[in-house]
Amino acid sequence: MSTDLSCAELIMSISRIWTEIAEKRMAELGLSRGDMELLSLVEQGGAEGLTLRQVEYLGGMSQPTASRLVSALHKRGLIRYVPDKRDLRSKHAVLTDEGQRLCREVQRAIEQRCEAAMSGLTEGARDTLRTLLSEVARKSKDMQA
Q1: What is residue 8's predicted lDDT score, i.e. its pLDDT?
Q2: What's this model's pTM, rounded to 2 decimal places?
């Protein structure tokens, strides 16, 4: 990879590479990118999980789409439903043990590749990179708002 690339070109190139790595592992596990995005989203809800309305909002999707996707992962045994303690008409989507395992498998594959890619960097260089990338991520997120 040429050092003549702009920061934007480098970020896009790295993003593409990591996406390909993640998608390869997902495919090996029988997951689509959409499946993994939804599993990761539900994982953020922790033990309490997320309501369908939260999945819609956080995932930026319509109610029918969220309902269809959550239902499909439920049928595959990757998500289970838990009644809402405050509103018995509502239920929360929570990862099953298998759903958690698959999330960890994909994350582990990415982390292993990242570790290999950074193996030549000193701890100080890694800290600097982490700090700089965190700042770029923060500013990028601010621009979305």
Answers
A1: 87
A2: 0.78
Which helix (H) or strand (E) segment holds residue 92: the answer is strand 91-95
CATH number, position 38: 1.10.10.10
Q: Alpha-carbon dihedral of residues 35, 37, 40, 45, nearest 10 degrees?
A: -100
Coil, helix or strand for 79? strand
Buried b (16+ CB within 10 A) or exposed e, 82-106: eeeeeeeeebbbbbeeebeebbeeb
Ramachandran region, residue 31 (left: φ > 0; alpha: ψ -120 to 50; beta: rest): beta
Please report whether residue 47 resides in a domain.
Answer: yes
pLDDT in tens, 26-66: 999 999 999 999 999 999 998 889 999 999 999 999 999 99
Q: Which residues contact 131 (CB under 8 A, 6 or more apart)?
A: none
Number of domains in the chain: 1
* Within-domain flag for 59: yes
Lowest mean pLDDT among 56-60, 85-89, 122-126, 132-136: 85-89
Q: Are strands 91-95 and 50-51 parallel, antiparallel or unpaired?
A: antiparallel
